[in-house]
Every structure is written in structure tokens, then in C-alpha cells.
């Protein structure tokens, strides 16, 4: 009998068991009367335990076979089934296991109660997690940490978490890290840093969580200071710094960090490369984009959907739209982000009709566009003079997709109407903006007024721009030139004198200056 059980346990341990396999195993158990064997339950328990973390679904399929074999889970089985339920966010199954534990008298076992707190916390039911905790007669540090972890994941009621923390008879690294995670998740970085500084000993998780708080909040100076203090830096920490700088509009810093990471001997993965690709997209140089693309290929970086979408966005923004299209075709199932990246690239580089065709394909695939998608679509309509189509898309965005217009949407529509000479409609659109005046929309309309010589609207728009951008010389010069085009020399001179009176400064432009000693184009070098 033990040899049969051992063979059965070996088969059970496979994470790839099909439903037909389970039926055959069930028949074997019944045919050999294995359910009566004292060795069967331990075999199931060992297998469920082994599968619960790496293959939670397989563990739960075994549980169904377990029940059909007339076995009853014990205090060793339940915790690992709860772990599997938590991993898959299967709250109903977790609740059923809770009920079974109550019926069979297993709840007083500490591992069962602790696993229940953890399961409810991971499934977002903090109130029941707390109820289980409060009803425990005996608690250990795992019990406290499980409840603290529940608070930390959702980042709510951190005052209660702090009270729990203060009541704990003892604490370990997991306890301290849970408090830092909780404060980070609720956006209270000051309290997170206070706990971090108070920690008797910090591990890599402690440093990484605090760093994550700063980078996700865009506090890159604080993040840099903390990063410099880290006793050791893993790939996750480097990736957060690269991504944080990229998302905060600091592409040069992101690429400099990437070079430092390589010098430190840390190999990038797909997540790190997404940050690098994103930074390169912001810089917008074709040579750099090609270098990054080559690097991804040479390093064998996983070309998952996020990497491919980032590459599409980078090449599209750098004007290499043909390469962007080829990469888009490599994405097995493009999502809204993938479509949006290519639509923007096509719209911004003179291929508006292709952008609109892609948008039609996106809708045919039943992929819901988001506000950023519509910025690209409206830009395409503006650049191609498709005014009526643009207005139709605007109405679809507002009424069909229930998207609240952003200032950028208004700016696109105003630019589109202004280019077509429909200045009254453009002005009405500006006045209807729920978000208030927007310099981009007003600037587009003022430029259109110069093209079509509309002094009346130009004066109204310029006055708003003088308030929004008091130091932007361009607005004053533009209004002055409109007056001059109508030979209103006195008004033109008056506006020019306003520049001196208000000491208006010319706003500097942005320029990326390539340093040949810093940017190596060699195919064996990093971007």
C-alpha cells in the first residue's frame, strides 16, 4: 500500500494535472480503497503544500479530488488551501474554508486562524480579517503581522494599524516593513520615513519599499538621496530609479542611472528596459531610439507586451513610424496602450489618415479608447483638416464613452477649428471649457486669428493669455503683429511697449545637445 501511495503522490505533485487525470486518480483511489489508508491524507497535504505558492490553481484542483475521495481536510491542509485561495483572490472559496474550519473545530489551531487573516486581508476584506483576529484566544507575531499586512496592502485605517503596532509584544522585520508599506500605500510618506528611520535593522525590502514611495510620488530628489544611502542595490531598486526619473520627465537622469547600473554589473530585465525606452522616447532622437532597439535585441530582453508597446511609442515619437508599425504587428494582442502609442505617433508625423484607420480597427476589436487615445485621434483630425470628423469624434468621446474632456482635448479641437478658419466656433469652445482657460488652446486660437486677421477675437484671447502667461513674449508679439497686419500701428506700438513695462522675458526653448563622449553609438554599448 505505501508504494502505491508514493506513486500516487508523485503523480499528484504535477502542476499540469488535467481534469481527466483527476478523474482517473479518483477512480484509482476508489478501486484500491486508498481512502482508508492512513498514508493518503499526508500525501495530499504534502502535495497541496508544495503547490500552494508556485501553482495555487493546481493545489485547489487537488482539493476537489481530495473531497471526492471522502477525505476531510485537517489543520495541516486548511492553511495551504487558504494560501492558494489568497493567491488567486478567491474570496468565496476562502470563506467556504472558513466555514468548514468552524464546523470541524479547526479554527482554534493557530496556523488556520493566521492563514484566514492573511487570506481575508489579501482579498480586501479587512473587517472580517479583524474579526478573526479579535476572536483568537491565542495570538503570535504571525497573527499581528497578518493583520498589519492586511492594513498595509490597502493602505487604509493606518491609525488603527499604528495602535496594533504599538500593542505588539514583539516585532520583527516583517512587522516594521508592513508599517512602511501601509504608510507608502496611503501616501503618507512622512510617517513612512519616520517608521523607516526608527527601524532597529533594515533589510533590502525596507529600503526598496521606502524608495518605491518616493519614486511613485515623483519625489526624485528624496529618492536619489535614499538610493545613494542604500548599502546594496538590486535590480528592483535600479529599475524604480530609472522608471521614476523617466516618469518625472527626467530622461537624461534615467539614462545616466541605466549606465551606472550596467557599470555595477546589474543586468537589466524587461521592466528596467521599459523605463529606459520611455526615457529615450522623451528625448526623441532617432539615433538613440535605434541604439536602444538594438540593445534590446542583443541582450535578449523578453519582448513582452509592455516592452513592445514601449518600443512602439519610442519609435513613433522619434518619427520612425514604419518601425513602430512593424513592432506593433509583433504584439500578439494589442491593448489600448499599444493602439494609443501608435495612433499618437502616426498623428504627430503626418500620417493622420493611417492614425484614424488604426482607431477604427481598435474599435472594431472592441478595445475601449481612453482620454489619451482621443488626444491622438483629435490631433490627427486637426493636422489633416478633417473638421467634421473631428467634431464627430469629440461627440463620441463625450456621449458614447462618457469621457470628461481634458484641456488637451479642447486644445486639439480649438486648433482644428482655428486652422479651418472657424474662429467663432473655436472661441465658443474655449469659453465652454469646464476646466477653465488653457494656454495651449488660447495660443492656438491666437495664432489662427493672425492667419485669418480676426482682431476682435485676438484681443479677447490675448488678454486671457497675458494673465495665464505674463512672461511669454510670444503672445505680445503675436497680438502686435495682428494689429500691424491691419495697419493699426498705434495698437501695435502699445502692445510692444507693454513688453518693456512688464519686463516680459522670452521663454527659453528646450534643446537636447548630444555629447559624443557620453552617448556611444557602438552596437555593443548601452544606450
TrEMBL record:
Ranges: PPR repeats: 140-171, 172-206, 234-268, 335-369
MF GO annotations: RNA binding
Species per Swiss-Prot/TrEMBL record: Dioscorea cayennensis subsp. rotundata (White Guinea yam)
Phylogenetic placement of the source organism: Eukaryota, Viridiplantae, Streptophyta, Embryophyta, Tracheophyta
PANTHER family reported in the protein's UniProt record: (WILD MALAYSIAN BANANA) HYPOTHETICAL PROTEIN, PENTATRICOPEPTIDE REPEAT-CONTAINING PROTEIN
Gene Ontology terms describing biological process: RNA modification
Gene designation per UniProt: LOC120275788
NCBIfam families to which the protein is assigned, alphabetical: PPR
Domain of life: Eukaryota
InterPro entries: E_motif (IPR046848), PPR_At4g14850-like_plant (IPR046960), PPR_rpt (IPR002885), TPR-like_helical_dom_sf (IPR011990)
Pfam families assigned to the protein according to its UniProt record, in alphabetical order: E_motif, PPR, PPR_2
Gene3D superfamilies the UniProt entry points to: Tetratricopeptide repeat domain
Name of the molecule in the record: Pentatricopeptide repeat-containing protein At3g29230-like
Keywords, ordered alphabetically: Repeat
